[in-house]
Write a structure and sequence with these properties.
globular; 33 strands; mainly beta; five-stranded mixed β-sheet; 42% strand; single chain
């Protein structure tokens, strides 16, 4: 599929206006203002609330460079900070790649596969987990080890920084809070199933949508549980937070909207025609919840009610989590294509064929999009010249 000339012109016009803003817009969730960020994508879903929204979209999908990361592939989603791309590989390396040229700056060997754990970059360190259950903190200057922490089982969750603490879940059923500088364990909270999702953070609470079927709110300071809400099923997706609500899909073929004040599920969305699990984590913008499904569709739901606003069909299941920028949705599919959809209508604006399945999520910064594929190619897309 290709976009028409008029669609491309409309896309470039909308993207050009959004690219002029280079700071994260301040919003309010549960009584706390979102920190203003420079034009960067420092962690999975970009911000601690895991909203997947940024301000400087790519102005086109020209290939600016590709980087060969190894034939074992890339499941990890990239981080982009300070002109450098950080990404983990199934071959067991954390790579630092120049955003401008695609040249490798350094490679750090973890001695184990990096699965879906995506780097988090803060305070001069890049953090990532591996399938041996080790959290690695690596200097972004030279790729040297700063510290490691060993959990009891594999880590597929992505680390998240909150102030001086690193939050990360493990398949040993624990969510850990570690000292970000030293890796010392501050606390660990044991759930009743593997912690696959990335923890979301807002107003001193961290939220985990667990494989035990519970959405848990834990106090970041001491790891005690504030409350839990039954999701009614196994959950692999991470919760996205906005306006005192959490949104996520489950393996019971539902998407949930949860009111964190009343501690009630306010809506459940089920596709009446195609009931498949949701593994993709949601993006939130303009009153919409956008996520991919294993039904091969991208779904946009009304955040207030869960009503479906539009859907878009791809040729394979969608485990990639969407990014939103400049009024457009960017998402990869198992069919090997990166799709760019209009946020309001769901109409196709652009697409790009990577020739290999995409399960990683796009990262967007400096008007460039970076995403890896399962054949080990790291793509940087944007406007050439």
């Amino acid at each position: 599929m290709t976009a028409s000339t008029s669609s491309r012109r409309g896309f470039l016009k909308a993207a050009s206006g959004a690219a002029a803003a280079l700071a994260w817009p301040a919003t309010r969730g549960r009584g706390e203002e979102t920190p203003r960020l420079v034009d960067a994508w420092p962690q999975f879903r970009r911000d601690p609330r895991l909203t997947g929204v940024t301000v400087a979209p790519p102005l086109s999908l020209d290939v600016l460079w590709t980087h060969e990361a190894g034939e074992d592939g890339i499941e990890s989603s990239a981080a982009i900070v300070g002109g450098t791309v950080y990404v983990g590989t199934v071959a067991g390396q954390l790579l630092a790649v120049d955003l401008e040229t695609g040249e490798r700056r350094w490679a750090y060997a973890t001695d184990s596969e990096i699965g879906e754990s995506s780097p988090c970059v803060a305070g001069g360190l890049a953090y990532v987990g591996d399938l041996d259950g080790v959290v690695h903190a690596v200097s972004i200057e030279d790729g040297e080890k700063a510290w490691t922490f060993e959990a009891g089982s594999e880590i597929r969750a992505s680390p998240v920084i909150h102030r001086d603490r690193l939050l990360v879940g493990s398949y040993d059923q624990f969510l850990y809070a570690l000292d970000a500088k030293t890796g010392a364990r501050i606390w660990g909270f044991e759930t009743e199933g593997p912690v696959h999702c990335t923890a979301a953070v807002d107003s001193g609470l961290t939220y985990v949508s667990g494989c035990d079927g519970e959405l848990r709110a834990l106090r970041v300071d001491d790891g005690t549980q504030a409350f839990s809400i039954s999701s009614g099923g196994y959950t692999g997706a991470s919760p996205a937070l906005e306006g005192g609500r959490a949104y996520y899909g489950t393996f019971e073929n539902e998407v949930l909207g949860v009111d964190l004040e009343t501690k009630q599920i306010i809506w459940r969305y089920v596709n009446e025609d195609r009931q498949f699990p949701y593994y993709s984590s949601a993006a939130l913008a303009d009153g919409k919840v956008v996520l991919g499904g294993r039904d091969r569709m991208v779904h946009a739901l009304e955040a207030a009610t869960g009503r479906e606003l539009w859907s878009f069909a791809t040729r394979a299941r969608i485990d990639s989590s969407p990014a939103i920028a400049g009024g457009r949705v960017y998402v990869g599919s198992g069919d090997g294509r990166l799709y760019v959809l209009d946020l309001e209508t769901g109409e196709l604006a652009l697409d790009f064929d990577t020739a290999s399945a995409i399960s990683a999520s796009p990262a967007i910064a400096h008007s460039r999009l970076v995403v890896g594929t399962l054949d080990g190619q790291l793509f940087c897309l944007g406007r050439r010249g």
